[in-house]
Amino acid sequence: MWNFKRGLFFVLFLALFMMLAACSEDAGSKEKEGTKDEDEPKATEPIKIGVLASQTGGLEAYGKQTLRGFELGLEYATEGTMEVAGRKIEFIVEDTETKPEVAVQKATKLLEEDGVDFLVGSSSSGDTLAVLPLAEEYEKIMIVEPAVADSITGSEYNDYIFRTARNSSQDAVAGAAAIAKEGVKIATFAPDYSFGWDGVAAFKEAAEKLGAEIIHEEYADPAATDFTSNIQKIIDAKPDYLFVVWAGANSPWNQIADMKVQEKGIKISTGAPDIAALATMEPLIGMEGFTVYYHELPDNEIHDWLLEEHKKRFNGEVPDLFTPGGMTAAIAIVEALKKTEGNADADTLIETMEGMSFETPKGKMTFRPEDHQALQTLYAIKLEKKEGVPYPVPVLIRELSPEETAPPIRN
Length: 411
Known about the structure:
Rossmann fold, single chain, 16 strands, 6-stranded mixed beta sheet
């Protein structure tokens, strides 16, 4: 009797144990299923991109060009679906007003209130430098376009920053190649902020390596409209060349012409700007310099699409200086998300984007792993007058390859 009871007790205990284990497993399965259900929407939620641009202020034209290119770029890269890896793409534009403090406010709003997965921008190097720390703080990828200050991917670099825009050193290599050689004396003229400082420093380094001497550096208030005293100091220095670094509508070209700088034996060299500024450069016809972009220079299928679509949508207007850059920023984001299958986690994206090559309206670009600067083609050009065109036209001398214009690593 005692053995029977003990055996019965054991059987009942075993049955109870198995029932509890089954319940526990069932509960665990439900818990896992619940977790899966909770996680599932994250893979289908929209990708949100916050775009910072100068829609007002001194660089308003650059913001307009970038935004047009960015929207076209999303459409091109997604083949018109505006989605990637099953996730819709939404973008929110904020005006920085070309003021760093406003840029910080707008970026914070995009990150905290709108919950963006990416930042893109901005038109001004000053605005962009102010926002860089936020990308790191909130652990979100920021695509820098079109700001060019070297410090963005140099002294102020952080791992969350990737730049599709060229930087000042790339401009400098192209500019120096056009005029610098042994014994040539050069003066520089630039706006008195990070864009100008970095541009001159990089040009000086590149030009001196080629044997030229920088005999005078002149900086002007970026908001100024009267450059008389600045130009007179340059004339007094008696250089062989004046290399100008400038951005914005208040360009010095008319005053350079009025003060007959070239007639005094000083040759002018600079980067060919956007179309509005080219219209003020009539006195510089014949100048040899460089450009980031002009719509007759690239020769590839993506640019053909950009040119055709831009004319179609904007009353026959051609893409301008920073339009392809906006398109490139959009393509870079979509290509990265294709590779991560829609995963917008910053650490995953950093690993994916370092060394990533992708096709753009200017040909192939590659994010250099060391500083996330996109290596890209620039163009050596000469300004010429063309019949029927109301401004001097940048005519190609030769393409400057991504390898040739690769800037120093400064971070």
